[in-house]
Specification:
single chain, alpha+beta, 4 strands, 10% strand, globular, 2 domains, 160 residues
């Protein structure tokens, strides 16, 4: 993997890209994200990694610009996971889901010319069922439920 590009944030709130030796804007950082260029942003005042804060700032600008990606309901649901017992599991779930979505989007684009659209969509649907099932099992295990063990037990509705 490539070494991440280092960007320094100075007290005057300016961002300095050490690779190209010049000041850049948040739009430039967004372009790095869009081009999948790995980078880290450090605050020069205390040398802390503020990459997440910069990414959140870019997201805020994107959300307030045109058509938002997140509805108010989605944001409220995400906020409810903060500090809860499932915060870590939820973060892994979202990251895995986004990785899967990006991979499938790329696969769809690449295979569209190789196979018929129906074959491609059928294969992807089968993969999704398997992957989402595994994600759900992991999420439930993280929540403290033993799905595999509970499957063998009769439920209260079985009349046993």
């Amino acid at each position: 993997m490539d070494k991440p590009r280092i960007i320094k944030k100075y007290p005057n709130r300016r961002l300095y890209d050490t690779e190209i030796s010049r000041y850049i804007t948040l739009v430039d950082v967004r372009d790095l994200v869009m081009d999948a260029v790995p980078f880290k942003v450090f605050d020069t005042a205390n040398d802390t990694d503020i990459t997440r804060a910069i990414l959140l700032q870019i997201m805020l600008e994107e959300e307030s610009g045109g058509e938002p990606l997140f509805s108010a309901n989605m944001l409220a649901q995400i906020i409810r996971f903060y500090g809860g017992t499932l915060q870590g599991a939820f973060a892994r779930y979202l990251e895995t889901a986004l990785d899967l979505f990006a991979r499938q989007q790329q696969e769809l684009t690449q295979s569209w010319s190789d196979t018929t659209p129906l074959e491609t969509m059928t294969r992807m649907a089968q993969q999704n069922v398997e992957l989402w099932g595994e994600l759900q099992r992991e999420f439930m295990r993280a929540a403290g439920f033993d799905i595999e063990h509970d499957r063998g037990k009769p439920s209260a509705d079985d009349g046993d």
